[in-house]
C-alpha cells in the first residue's frame, strides 16, 4: 500500500492560493500600478503649447514647480490646511468617539446614525450648504462681520470648516472601533488602584485608542490633501489647493505633463508625511504600553 507524499498537499495548497490571488493581483496592477507608472512617465514628457505632449524626457515640469513661488505657496497651503483639519478632527472626534463608546443601546446606534448621516448626502450639496451658511448675507456671515472677522466665504477658514465637517466621520469611526475593543476590566482595575478618571483616560484608554487615532488621522489627512470640491466651492480662487491646480493643468491648460508632475509630488508629499507620522505615533504607542 502506497502512502501519499506529505509534501504534495502543501504544494497543492500553495498553487491554489497563488491561483486564487491572481485575479485580485491583476486587478491591483491594472487599476493602480499601471496608471501610476504611466503618470510618472507622463510627468517627464516635454510639452509644447502649440504641439502638445512631445516624445523624449525632460525635468522642465519639476524645475518649474520648485522655482515657482505660486506653486510652492499652493503646496504649503494644502499642507497646513490638511494638517489643521486633521488636528481639529482629532480634538473633536476622539472625545466624541469616547462618549459614543460609553453610550448604551439604543442611543449609541441613534448617535452613530447621526454621525454617519452626512455621508449619505452629496459632497457638492454639503459644500453649497456651507456656502449659504457662510455667505455675507446669512446670519453667520453678518455675525462674523459684526465681530470684525469679515466674510468667511472664499477664505481658507471656510475651506477648513467645510473639510472638518466632511472628514469628521472618518476620524470618529476608527477611534470608536478601537475604544470598543478595550476590555472593561482594565478600566475597573485602574479605578481599583485609586486612579482618577483623568489618569485612567490618559494611561489606559488613550494608549489603546492610539491605533484608531493613527488610522483616522491618516485617512483624514490623505483625503484632505486631495480634496477638490470643498476648496473650489468654499475657497474660490484665493484658497486654491494642489488638487485644483492639477485639474486646471489637465482640463483647462491641457498641460498634462505638468498636471502629472503635480500629482506625483502630491503623492510623494503624502507618503513622506504619513510614514513619518506613522513611525512617531507607533513609537509613542509602544512606549505607552511598555
Q: How would you summarize the topology of this molecule?
A:
Blueprint: H1 8-43, E1 47-48, E2 52-53, H2 60-67, H3 69-102, H4 107-116, H5 123-133, H6 139-146, H7 156-180, H8 184-192, H9 197-225, H10 229-235, H11 242-252, H12 256-288
Antiparallel strand pairs: 1-2
Helix pairs in contact: 1-12, 3-7, 3-9, 5-10, 7-9, 7-10, 8-9, 9-12, 11-12
In short:
The chain has helices at residues 8-43, 60-67, 69-102, 107-116, 123-133, 139-146, 156-180, 184-192, 197-225, 229-235, 242-252, 256-288; strands spanning 47-48, 52-53. With 290 residues, the protein is mainly alpha-helical. The longest helix has 36 residues, at 8-43.
Task: Give a verbal description of the structure.
The chain is an all-alpha fold and 290 residues long. Helices cover 76% and strands 1% of the residues. The protein has 12 helices and 2 strands; from the N terminus they run H-E-E-H-H-H-H-H-H-H-H-H-H-H. A two-stranded antiparallel sheet has the order 1-2. Helix 8 (184-192) runs antiparallel to helix 9. The radius of gyration is 25 Å and the shape is globular. The mean pLDDT is 84.
Amino acid at each position: 500500500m502506497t502512502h501519499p507524499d506529505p509534501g504534495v498537499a502543501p504544494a497543492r495548497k500553495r498553487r491554489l492560493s497563488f491561483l486564487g490571488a491572481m485575479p485580485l493581483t491583476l486587478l491591483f496592477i491594472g487599476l493602480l500600478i499601471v496608471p501610476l507608472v504611466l503618470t510618472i512617465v507622463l510627468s517627464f514628457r516635454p510639452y509644447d503649447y502649440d504641439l502638445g505632449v512631445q516624445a523624449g524626457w525632460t525635468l522642465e515640469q519639476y524645475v518649474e514647480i520648485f522655482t515657482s513661488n505660486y506653486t510652492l505657496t499652493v503646496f504649503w497651503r494644502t499642507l497646513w490646511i490638511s494638517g489643521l483639519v486633521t488636528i481639529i478632527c482629532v480634538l473633536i472626534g476622539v472625545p466624541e468617539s469616547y462618549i459614543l463608546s460609553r453610550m448604551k443601546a439604543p442611543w449609541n446606534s441613534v448617535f452613530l446614525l447621526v454621525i454617519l448621516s452626512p455621508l449619505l448626502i452629496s459632497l457638492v450639496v454639503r459644500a453649497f450648504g456651507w456656502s449659504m451658511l457662510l455667505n455675507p448675507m446669512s446670519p453667520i456671515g453678518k455675525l462674523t462681520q459684526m465681530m470684525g472677522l469679515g466674510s468667511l466665504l472664499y477664505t481658507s477658514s471656510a475651506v477648513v470648516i467645510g473639510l472638518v465637517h466632511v472628514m469628521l466621520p472618518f476620524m470618529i469611526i476608527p477611534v470608536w472601533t478601537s475604544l470598543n475593543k478595550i476590555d472593561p476590566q482594565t478600566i475597573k482595575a485602574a479605578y481599583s488602584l485609586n486612579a482618577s478618571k483623568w489618569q485612567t483616560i490618559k494611561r489606559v484608554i488613550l494608549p489603546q485608542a492610539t491605533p484608531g487615532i493613527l488610522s483616522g488621522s491618516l485617512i483624514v489627512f490623505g483625503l484632505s490633501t486631495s480634496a477638490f470640491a470643498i476648496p473650489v466651492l468654499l475657497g474660490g480662487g484665493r484658497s486654491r489647493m494642489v488638487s485644483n491646480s492639477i485639474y486646471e493643468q489637465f482640463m483647462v491648460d491641457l498641460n498634462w505633463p505638468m498636471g502629472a508632475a503635480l500629482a506625483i509630488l502630491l503623492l510623494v508629499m503624502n507618503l513622506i508625511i504619513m510614514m513619518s507620522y506613522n513611525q512617531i505615533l507607533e513609537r509613542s504607542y509602544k512606549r505607552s504600553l511598555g
